[in-house]
Write a structure and sequence with these properties.
about 650 residues, alpha/beta, Rossmann fold, 4 domains, seven-stranded mixed β-sheet, six-stranded parallel β-sheet, 22 helices, globular
């Protein structure tokens, strides 16, 4: 990662968007930052935490996004500028608190929420646009279109939050968060911050109840006045501008990363003198006067944005309220099907939309070249399916689950949620997981399934969750299952890391975001204190793990917990040498004559096991193999041998 704390104002640094956001927060003089890891937002806190002590700020990986936002609000109430960052799913988790916070107002310290959305759900359980949430809850919203804006907008938002007295929100997307560009640095503040909660003057600003001098209904009216104040600032914002001719054949209204795609598309079509681009950085409340001023640029308007038609609807609402003699352009976008209302956009998709509206024929590349490239990719690029890493304990866990369910014979069900273990929906986890929704939902769904005995339901139910997910969202579902005596097994995949998003610490690791040792919250002690039976298994011990799960399923009688404890291989491998040297005995390997047609390479699918077509035998890829030795237990012929390293 880049050094975001470099004190070199005026110089340019190469930052990813998340680093630029973190730098903007530093330049704004934040004192408090909280987050829960989630791609594509994780690098914001990942950049701030290592330099927090040096910069005199506090940074934490909170147990979930709601707590992160609440903690940041607490700092704001005491006059400290604070930031909470998360991915789009996290905004759902925090929405209950947000709905109260915006009515109450923030403290003297500016408070900013960063949401990094994930168009195309590249690393998410859903594809969600958080902009409508800002509109729904009356939160001023901006979206950067460049890396420089990512820094400058973040800094600017803290001033806006304090001037308006309300939470402000910045929405980014994956291609801004993770792409890289030059960012010109500003000055880092040198002043010391002093926290103080004024219980006399500030209390009325942070308690939205009817018992206080200003009741909630009136506070809602005040919130709209705050929005009006933000809108006034937005009208003259430097983050909104127009590029193109005074009169255009087509006007593109765009925001965020789509500003870059629109520029590329117009240049590729050589239409710079015919197509104008109105780039908006302040999205809600809509800077209506600024937009109205540019509406007469063209009789045709194309909206280019990811994911929902947010700008499209907002502008159309505005136009519907203009005087009768105002311009009434033809609108194109998601409503007209010229732009997808799902997935990421790119210059090619924007080119296609522009070409369709302007009746231009555009051929991106020679047809024959395209055919040859497609043929080459089919014949020469090997197929690679998503899978667990070599030596991942999750593969062993799902192998044990698969065998235990088969031995039980009652067609058991595995529920899950988002994490590395989501791969168990497919061949990597032997198609064992049947549901995947938000964090903690696997256990919640299991609660319902586990109470269907009166309807003749007899299928065992196993809910899988990661260790970080357990602390984040699963504990309430477990308590509910114990209290209501729901019959399911919570299988906690404890690999001692928030592995999917970058190995961030959590309450079970004994380390804080700032690298300080802390007390480990024992998940087994916590579960036992709730009255649950708890078994701790080593997933690499397939026989014992399978037997334990089988016995727990047979027992019935309410919620139970099985903890699969084995450190993530990517973490272990940095500290220790492989425990075993593994090889295949070619004399014992019978290849495709194996009972399950190459059980090791076709079914078990560890990347460290490969099929040698020339000799018709399996072999170990010594570069990839981590020496875990689990494959020695799954070979029915005993052809895979492990020896102490």
């Amino acid at each position: 990662m880049a050094t975001i704390d470099i004190d070199a104002p005026g110089t340019s640094q190469l930052f990813i968007g998340n680093e630029a956001i973190a730098r903007g927060a530093l330049e704004a003089g934040i004192g408090f930052a909280a987050s829960y890891p989630g791609t594509p937002s994780s690098e914001i806190m990942g950049s701030l935490a290592p330099i927090a002590k040096k910069m005199g700020i506090y940074a934490e990986w909170s147990i979930n996004e709601k707590v992160a936002m609440e903690a940041a609000a607490g700092a704001s109430f005491a006059g400290i500028r604070a930031l909470a960052s998360m991915k789009q799913n996290g905004v759902n988790v925090v929405s209950d608190f947000l709905a109260n916070l915006v009515i109450a107002g923030i403290g003297k310290g500016g408070l900013v929420l960063i949401s990094c959305d994930d168009p195309s759900a590249i690393s998410s359980s859903n594809e969600q646009d958080t902009r409508p949430i800002a509109k729904w809850l009356d939160i001023p919203l901006v979206e950067p279109g460049t890396f420089q804006e990512a820094k400058d907008m973040t800094k600017w938002l803290f001033d806006l939050a304090e001037k308006t007295g309300t939470l402000c929100m910045l929405r980014s997307v994956t291609r801004i968060a993770h792409a890289r560009g030059n960012v010109k640095l500003g000055e880092l503040p040198k002043k010391e911050q002093k926290a103080y909660f004024d219980q006399i003057h500030d209390l009325r600003n942070v308690m939205p109840t009817t018992f206080m001098p200003v009741p909630s209904a009136l506070r809602h009216a005040f919130l709209h006045l705050k929005l009006d104040k933000a809108q006034e600032k937005f009208e003259s914002s430097p983050f909104n501008y127009y590029v193109g001719p005074d009169k255009a054949d087509l006007l593109i209204i765009t925001c965020g990363s789509c500003w870059l795609y629109s520029q590329d598309a117009v240049k590729a079509l050589k239409l710079e003198d015919k197509v104008g681009i109105l780039k908006l950085g302040t999205l809600w409340p809509l800077p209506e006067k600024f937009v109205e001023k540019h509406l007469n640029k063209s009789r045709k308007i194309l909206f280019v944005e990811e994911i929902d038609p947010f700008l499209e609807r907002s502008v159309m609402e505005m136009v519907a309220n203009l005087p009768a003699d105002s311009p009434r352009p033809t609108f194109y976008g998601k409503r007209s099907k010229h732009i997808n209302a799902y997935g990421e956009l790119n210059p090619d998709l924007v080119i296609k939309a522009i070409a369709s509206i302007t009746s231009i024929t555009y051929q991106p590349r020679d047809v024959e070249y395209g055919k040859k490239a497609e043929e080459f990719s089919k014949s020469s690029v090997p197929e690679r399916s998503m899978t667990f890493c070599a030596g991942c304990p999750h593969r062993a866990t799902f192998w044990a689950i698969k065998n235990a369910l088969k031995l039980d014979g009652r067609d058991g069900i595995v529920t899950g949620d988002i994490g590395c273990y989501s791969l168990a929906l497919g061949p990597a986890g032997f198609f064992q997981v049947r549901t995947m929704h938000c964090m903690g939902a696997g256990a919640g769904i299991a609660n319902g399934l586990g109470k269907l005995g009166q309807f003749g339901f007899n299928q065992p139910v196993l809910a899988v969750c990661g260790d970080s997910t357990f602390f984040h969202a699963t504990i309430p579902a477990l308590i509910n299952g114990i209290y209501n005596q729901s019959n399911f097994i919570l299988v906690i995949l404890d690999n001692n890391a928030t592995a999917m998003t970058g190995f961030q610490p959590h309450p079970g690791t004994g380390m804080t975001a700032m690298g300080e040792p802390t007390k480990v919250v024992s998940m087994e002690a916590l579960c036992r204190s709730l009255g649950a039976r708890v078994e701790i298994c080593d997933p690499f011990d397939l026989e014992s793990t399978t037997a334990t799960l089988l016995e727990m399923m047979a027992e019935g009688g309410g919620a139970k917990v099985a903890i699969m404890r084995r450190e993530c291989e990517l973490v272990r491998g940095k500290k220790e040498k492989p425990p075993y040297k593994v090889h295949v005995d070619p004399d014992k390997c019978i290849g495709e004559a194996c009972g399950c047609d190459r059980l090791c390479t076709r079914v078990f699918l560890c990347p460290g096991l490969v099929w040698d077509k020339k000799v018709g035998k399996s072999k170990i890829d010594e570069v990839i193999c981590t020496g875990c030795g689990v494959c020695t237990d799954i070979c029915p012929q005993g052809a895979i041998i492990k020896e102490a390293a």
